[in-house]
Amino acid sequence: MSDYLATVNAGVSVLLIIIVGYVCTWLKIVPAKDFGTLNLFTAKCCFFFMTFRSLAGKDKDVLDFRPLAISVLMSLTLYLIFAIIIFLPFNDSFGLYISIVFPTVYVNYFISGLPIFLALWDESETAVITVILIANDLMCSPIFLTLAKIHELRIQRQKRKTEQMEMKSIDDNIEGDSYSTTSSELESSSISQKQTTEKNNTSNFNNCKNNTTIHQNHTALSETHKNHDQNVNITESDSIEEESAEINIDKKKKKDKINNNDDDDDHYIKKLLLEILNRLIHNMFLVGIVFGMIYLAITSKTCTFLKELMNMLGDCVLPFALFNVGAFLSTQSLIACHWAEALVSLIGRLILGPFLAGIYCYALGFPGRLSQQCIILASMPTAATCFTMTDSAGIGSGVSSTMIMWSAVFMVPVTVFWMWILEVTKLFEE
Q1: What is the DSSP letter of 348?
Q2: Where is the sequence biased in composition, kind Basic and acidic residues (predicted)?
Q3: Cβ-based neighbour number of residue 255 at 10 Å
Q4: Most buried of 194, 358, 377, 410 (most Cβ within 10 A)?
Q5: Cα distance between residue 105 and residue 90, in whole Å
Q6: Where are the alpha helices (H) located in 207-303, listed in sequence order?
Q7: Which DSSP string do the residues of 293-336 spell out, in sequence order?
């Protein structure tokens, strides 16, 4: 396996194609929308034949599911190890955990891994890549989507709790204002009556001769004050009623919003399952694997027409996909997240992942050649599809774009490093 020169040449070729796509988009030699069309064609037409041909026409003995077990165990262990982030004192520890762990477990086994694999082993063994790839779509993606939905639900419940507290505060303020208004009205009425009585007694005592006239004036004055008080009370009552009506409307809107959120919560599980199922059905990598297994179970022969079709469309995947990776990276920042997040995710993807794969291969007693293949594939960079999923979920897109770029940059030296480790330790000799 220690063909370092062939490995470096394959890795550099991958990086050069990515750089060409980057430069063409950055200099606007090729419009970004054209790369979008190319990406759609690659995903819908070519991905299927790339995985299909790795199984069709092969012997049934090539289908070994042991690499899938390594990929599943490695990914689950990474999910569990990085879960310690949840207990750290960050503002959104759970969201940070999701952002870091998914780019760490979502590996570019095929696009980046195939050239490296072919530089070290025979093409007849590429079924290993096909099998190990299944873990991405059947385990890593569903776990991420579930965690992202849980995070979204937690945020919505927190907002709902805040709104309920605000409504309770408004109700308390309304009751307090009503009580103070009633008390002040009663107090002012009592003082007014007392002053009027004292004034009338003094007037009657000093002006006995004009008693009739004073009585008439007093009656007229009382009626005037009474009409004025009624007008003031009516005005204040109308104002209070208008304010109460506005507050009730706001409260009703907030309650309706909370009820709607409760209805959405009831459908979260159904929506999540439908989303996962939809992604599985439209994943051409996975569809190609399924049809390849069916074809493999029926026959081990392929006609010339089908073989040429598989070769033509399957061979388009690597250059087109790598071109699109370069075009994508040209629209992103070199570091779109905090440097510590990128560093932790890089260590998990390029160092911890292959290390765990080696431990599980040794523990399960895998053959030396198969163990080497699993460890080298486990050191591959983050898949570009990771950004699409995180951006759609609204969490972790910055870490994903950073990981796609820098894990690809370090792919060659990391691969050579693990080749050297395997050669020095001689744990997995063929």
Answers
A1: I
A2: 161-171
A3: 13
A4: 377
A5: 22
A6: 211-266, 268-281, 284-298
A7: HHHHHH-S---HHHHHHHHHHHHHHHHHHHHHHHHHHHTS-S--
Q: Tell me how far apart the alpha carbons of residues 129 and 297 are, in angstroms, rounded to a whole number.
A: 19
Torsion of CA 372, 377, 379, 385, to 10 degrees: -170
Q: Given the structure tokens 């990914």, which residue do they identify?
A: 75
Q: What are the sequence ranges of the domains in the chain?
A: 4-159+276-425
Contact 221, 140 (CB under 8 A): no
Q: What fold is seen in the domain 4-159+276-425? A: Na+/H+ antiporter like fold (1.20.1530)
Tens digit of pLDDT for each residue in 241-279? 555 555 555 555 555 554 555 555 556 677 778 888 888
CB of 18 closer than 8 Å to CB of 408:
yes
Task: Annotate 242-252 with b (16+ C-beta within 10 A) or e (fewer).
Answer: eeeeeeeeeee
pLDDT tens-digit series, residues 393-405: 889 999 999 999 9
Q: Whole-structure pTM over 0.70, yes or no?
A: yes
Q: How far apart are CA 141 and CA 392, in angstroms?
A: 13
Residue 134, both tokens: 């299944």
Cβ neighbour number for residue 147 with a 10 Å cutoff:
20
Q: Which two tokens stand for residue 206?
A: 């000093």
Please give the structure tokens belonging to residue 45. Answer: 């037409």
pLDDT tens for each residue of 127-138 = 899 999 999 988
DSSP code string of 5-55: HHHHHHHHHHHHHHHHHHHHHHTTSS-HHHHHHHHHHIIIIIHHHHHHHTT
The helix-helix angle for 141-206 and 268-281 (nearest 10°) equals 150
Which residue's structure tokens are 């309920």?
Answer: 164
